[in-house]
Design brief:
Elements: E1 14-15, H1 27-35, H2 49-59, E2 66-69, H3 72-83, E3 87-92, H4 96-102, E4 108-113, E5 136-140, H5 152-165, E6 168-172, H6 182-185, E7 197-202, E8 215-219, H7 222-229, H8 239-248, H9 252-275, E9 279-280, E10 287-291, H10 296-302, E11 305-306, E12 308-309, E13 320-324, H11 328-343, H12 348-355, E14 367-368, E15 371-372, H13 379-393, H14 400-413, H15 418-421, E16 422-424, H16 428-437, E17 441-444, H17 447-452, H18 455-460, E18 465-466, H19 472-481, H20 485-493, E19 500-504, H21 508-519, E20 527-530, H22 538-546, E21 552-555, H23 562-577
Parallel strand pairs: 1-11, 3-4, 3-5, 5-6, 6-7, 17-18, 17-19, 19-20, 20-21
Antiparallel strand pairs: 2-8, 7-8, 9-10, 10-13, 12-13, 14-15, 16-21
Protein name: Histidinol-phosphate aminotransferase
Domain Cobalamin biosynthesis precorrin-8X methylmutase CobH/CbiC: 378-574
Family: Belongs to the CobH/CbiC family.
């Protein structure tokens, strides 16, 4: 499942997997929906004029800038079809709907991986992805599944840069009203200044009507707005959706009460979960992203409580969950369910005492059910012990030469599938070590991969790490030749007059370019680490490298990423650094 709300295949009493308003549907909206039954023998208004005027008045937006859709998801897809972008940037982790919309196009996606140590907050690193080749940028404010807001100064800097480079921004504000900070952060009132920004939102979550399917966008570029409209079906809004939307636009006090309730209950959940030793990420939305070793999804489902397992969010992994903020009685039931899980072999009172930080002694030997206390300096060692144990439990025996590389990739991703999908050419690890000892350089296709590589060990043997993606000359050449910057970067790197290890964690076009240079005998890389992530040509590009006689480490399938690429490099470097 790529979305929450799967109540149709599970027995559920309380659904924390979808982030709808804990107050439930407003009474006036419910009444309007019931009355709309009488209009089912008629076609709905194809222009939805009453709803458009109501929304314009409610939001203080020119009605000419509004476009309505059957949920925000329909609008995302219509935007992609209308613009037909060649390169799309998506920060991750993020809402899967952006990626799904892009799958219906020919566009190439670059994923900007936000950092866990920064709470998965968007940072200035995104600016490096805003090049002349970039056509469209998806942003969510607040982010889903994290719930944090983008720093307003950074967002303005992004908007200015995209305006200068003619990059379209699709700004998802579906959860912004819950934050109580809409006036400060919204771009719906800045459409004249930033006509390249499309603000997308929906009635779904704030009015608790996901079944009605009603989204909208604001676009200050009238020509673009009309072009998007042409990619929407006729009569895409039912009489029910239009009636619900018109009624919802009058619910000002309901919104104010919702903001207060969400703030109060979010703080309650955060405090309770943190007392139980569960990591809670900062949020301004009506949901919380949490991380724990507890098997929360399966165990809570046994109690007929459904939460969102976030292990399939790009950039996250096992142990991440998203929990909606609901009414207090439901939140109490959730906490009760988690406490019952934790009781295990000891009384809960002792566990609470330990997690209240009133204890002095920290010991690695303290274990309660699934909660284990480990000294900070021992965390990595303990992680590898767990990986080794689980590999044994899965009857997976790794070849000795490949063992450390595979384990470090699993450590980085928390994904044991890499034990099956990583492919090594004969003697690959030893060859990689030998090249580094001889002073080989490393060239990456992302600055993130380069930043993650241990350059201290590399420098000890006379090597350097490079990433040419942000070079102006690369951007100019790529635009002139109508190819990607990644492909040009590979050619550029071939000019380095020493052995080069190519590390590709994002762009399949980089692998294609390397393959073509090898086949044409124009250049022979010393080594290739090929682990790009994505959907378009990713698998095929990796298979090309497997056909060559160049030493390689490649991950078959769609998975990979800059973090995986850096992990492979570091596994080899750490062996040399001992």
């Amino acid at each position: 499942m790529f979305h929450g709300g799967d109540i149709y295949r599970n027995k559920v009493k309380i659904d924390f997997s979808v982030n709808i308003n804990p107050l439930g549907m407003p009474a006036a909206v419910r009444k309007a929906l019931l009355e709309a039954v009488e209009n089912c023998e008629q076609y709905p208004d194809i222009k939805a004029e009453r709803l458009t005027e109501s929304l314009a008045e409610r939001m203080g937006v020119n009605k000419e800038h509004i476009l309505l859709g059957n949920g925000a998801s329909e609008l995302f897809t219509a935007i992609i079809h209308a613009v037909d972008p060649g390169r799309i940037v998506i920060p991750v982790p993020s809402f899967y709907g952006y990626e799904r919309a892009v799958m219906s196009s020919r566009g190439e996606v670059l994923f900007y991986e936000m950092k866990e140590e920064m709470g998965y907050t968007l940072d200035k690193g995104i600016m490096e992805y805003l090049t002349e080749e970039t056509d469209l940028l998806f942003l969510a404010n607040p982010n889903n599944p994290v719930g944090n807001l983008i720093d307003s100064a950074l967002l303005e800097q992004i908007a200015e840069e995209c305006k200068r480079k003619q990059i379209l921004i699709v700004l998802d504000e579906c959860f912004l009203e819950f934050s109580g900070k809409e006036e400060r952060y919204t771009y719906k009132n800045r459409l004249e200044t930033y006509p390249h920004v499309i603000v997308v939102s929906a009635f779904t979550k704030i009015y608790a009507i996901p079944g009605a399917r009603l989204g909208y966008l604001f676009c200050g570029d009238k020509e673009l707005r009309n072009r998007i409209e042409k990619h929407l079906p006729e009569w895409n809004l039912s009489v029910f959706a239009q009636a619900a939307g018109i009624a919802a636009c009058q619910e000002k006090e309901y919104i104010e009460e919702s903001i207060q309730v969400v703030e109060t209950e979010r703080q309650y959940l955060k405090g309770q979960l943190e007392q139980l030793g569960i990591k809670v990420y900062p949020s301004d939305a009506d949901y919380l992203l949490i991380r724990t070793d507890l098997q929360l999804y399966d165990e809570l489902l046994k109690k007929e409580i459904l939460i969102r397992d976030c292990s399939n969010f790009r950039g996250l992994g096992r142990g991440y969950y998203r929990i909606a903020v609901k009414k207090h009685s439901d939140n109490v039931m959730l906490i009760k369910g988690v406490k019952e899980m934790l009781q295990g072999d000891i009384m809960f009172g002792r566990l609470k005492e330990i997690h209240s930080f009133q204890y002095v002694e920290r010991s690695m030997d303290i274990k309660m059910h699934n909660i284990e206390f480990v000294l900070p300096e021992e965390i990595e060692k303990r992680s590898f012990e767990i990986i080794s144990r689980e590999l044994k439990e899965r009857n997976i025996l790794l070849p000795p030469e490949q063992e450390m590389v595979t384990k470090r990739v699993i450590h980085t991703s928390a994904d044991f599938e890499y034990a099956d999908t990583l492919v090594f050419s004969e003697g690959a690890v030893e060859k990689g070590k030998q090249l580094i000892k001889e002073g080989a350089d490393i060239v990456t296709d992302t600055n993130m991969a380069m930043a993650g590589i241990n350059k201290t060990v590399l420098a000890r043997f006379g090597g350097s790490a490079h990433c040419f993606m942000a070079e102006k000359e690369i951007a100019v050449l790529a635009k002139e030749r109508q190819i990607t910057r990644a492909a040009v970067s590979m050619e550029w790197a071939s000019k380095i007059e020493k052995p080069v290890i190519f590390v590709v964690g994002n762009a399949p076009t980089a692998l294609v370019q390397l393959y073509e240079m090898i086949e044409s005998r124009m250049f022979r890389p010393a080594f290739i680490i090929g682990v790009p992530v994505g959907f378009v040509n990713v698998e095929a590009a990796k298979e090309l490298i497997l056909k060559t006689d160049v030493p390689y480490i490649v991950n078959r399938g769609r998975k990979g990423g800059s973090n995986v690429a850096a992990a492979i490099c570091n596994a080899i470097l750490y062996e040399l650094g001992r």
